[in-house]
Every structure is written in C-alpha cells, then in structure tokens.
Amino acid sequence: MNILDLDHSLTSQAPIKQRLTDGRATRMDLLELGPQLRLWSTERNYRRFAERLQQRPKRSTQRPEIFFIGSGDYHHLTPALLADLPEPITLIHFDNHPDWVRFAPRRHCGSWVNRALKLPNIKRIVTLGPCSDDLQNPQFKGANLGALCRGDLQLFPWQHAPTKVWGRIGDGAGHEQHENLLHWRNLADQDWPTFLDELIRSLPTEAIWITVDKDVLASEDAATNWDQGGMRLTHLLHALRALATSKRVLGIDVCGEFAKAAHRNVLKRWEARSDQPAPGRWSESDLLRNSTTNEALIHLFEELFPCP
Fold it and tell me: Which end of the chain has less neighbouring CB within 10 Å, N or C?
C-alpha cells in the first residue's frame, strides 16, 4: 500500500500509521510538491510528480497497487497512476463530482476525467455517485457531454434532478433524454446488488482500476474539503467487493481526506474560497470519520488482496 504524503492528512491516522510502522505500507514524501499540486498543477510540476512516482517500489503482478493520496484536491494525479498500465481497463470512478470540465486550467481536479479519457488503455470511465450542482446547466460549466454521448463516459448520480441541456445528447446507460432534459438513473432508487451485477456484466474489459473520492460518501461517513454526497460506506464497500470478485483489479486509489491549505497562489486561494464549503464546518470528532472509513477500506483491501 502506497501512502502519497502530500498534505499531512494521512500519516497521523491510526490504521495508516500502524501499517507504516509494521511495513505493510510505504510512505512517499511529497510534501514539498504538495502545495504546487493542490487543486491544479502546471505541466512542469505534474511531470515532477510523475517522475517521483516512478521511484515507488516495483509493481507486483499478483496484487493490485493501492494508493492513498490525501485531499480530493489531488484527484487530478490519478492519470499519472494510469500512465503505464499493461492492458486495457475500465476506470470505475466514485465521486460526488463528475470532474469532467473541459476548460479548467492546467491539470485540474475538476477536469482530470478528460485527461484520463485520452490515455490509450482507458476504454471507458464509469462515474458513480455525483449529487453536486455540477450537473446543473453542465454545458455552461464546460461539461464533456460529448464523451457521455459517445458512451466513453457513463455517469450514474446518487440522487439528482433532471438536467437541462441544449441539443441532442441521446440516451445512455445512466440517463435518458426527454426533450431538453436528461433524466438520470439515480442510484439511490436502485436495488444496489442488482445494479452492481448489471454494471459488471456491461463492462468492456476484464481488468479495471478503481478511483475513490470520499466526498461521494454522506457526511456520516466522511469529512472532506468538498461538499458531501449521499452514498453510504456500506454501499461503497459492497461495490468494491463485487467489483473485485468479478473483475481483475489492477489498482485502486483513494482520496478525499480533509486537509487545511494555506494557498500561496492567489488564484488557488480565490478558487478554494469560491468552490469549497467553509473549512470550519468540521469538528475534530467529525474528522475521525475519515480514519474510521479508511480502516474499513484497508481491512477490505487486505481481505480481498492478501499478501502472498
């Protein structure tokens, strides 16, 4: 298990601290790069991260690589983890946000899905769980509805009202278009085991990568820098187990810790204040949910992918 230490949010959590101590996890010190990478990054700093990533322990062919990354402000680092995949995959993306904006600057945590779609071994991205207002007037916000139209991207909100669009997007696995509205197949209304079985049967590849932003979870299960979704931890654990027992998992990355950021960059400071809820909304007891949730995730990973 790889701990990418970008923001101090992980190493004090008991389940991670224990595994760093006994050697079941490896810490990569990226604190110097953390501020430059947070929210968005220049290509130069992104390349510096990718080069540092190559220094990690050699990938095992027997078990998936597992990464804990820190704040969801770093989700745009996921494509670097996918850059040298040995075979075609489907990317399963749990998130409260679609991260599909096309005109966001540089390498941005709100636009990384578009970067991932350009990678040669990504055959489809399936986004599960958004509840955020990113699905309101998406064309004004630069959403990549073209990928949705082509089926390269499938999106299943946890719970969201119909989305108004202009022009023909067409029907997809997670939506139907009626006149100028996309009516979503909301996961909160589905029988969860039945939906997962159907989803798994529809995937175009045998190999998958799973990326989790914990803001997909309800506030009872996580406390992040972003607005929280509606999925419960039990749903996420069920989905991870179903995916791992039906498909070959090449890797998993998890972000969505809470980490305060004193942005030196004026634009980043403005963006954080504009887009993110007030950081003072969480108490210390609220933040303990992240450790509890990470412990449940790690226990599941160790059960599903035991050391040889």
Answer: C
**How confident is the model at residue 299, as a pLDDT?**
97
Whole-angstrom Cα distance, residue 96 to residue 215? Answer: 6
On whether the CB atoms of residues 281 and 231 are closer than 8 A, the answer is: no
Q: Which two tokens stand for residue 125?
A: 């991205």
Chain CA centroid to CA 120, Å? 20
| pLDDT tens per residue across span 169-214 | 999 999 999 999 999 999 999 999 999 999 999 999 999 999 999 9
Cα–Cα nearest to 302, from 244, 233, 221, 230? 244
Amino acid at 159: Q
| Inter-residue contact 222 to 214 (CB < 8 Å) | yes
Antiparallel, parallel or unpaired: β 163-164 and 175-178 = unpaired
For the chain, the C-alpha Rg in angstroms (whole number) is 18
CA distance 277 to 211: 23
Q: Which CATH superfamily is domain 2-304 in?
A: Ureohydrolase domain (3.40.800.10)
What distance in Å separates the CA atoms of residue 42 and residue 36, rounded to the nearest whole number?
Answer: 8
Is pTM beyond 0.85? Reply is yes
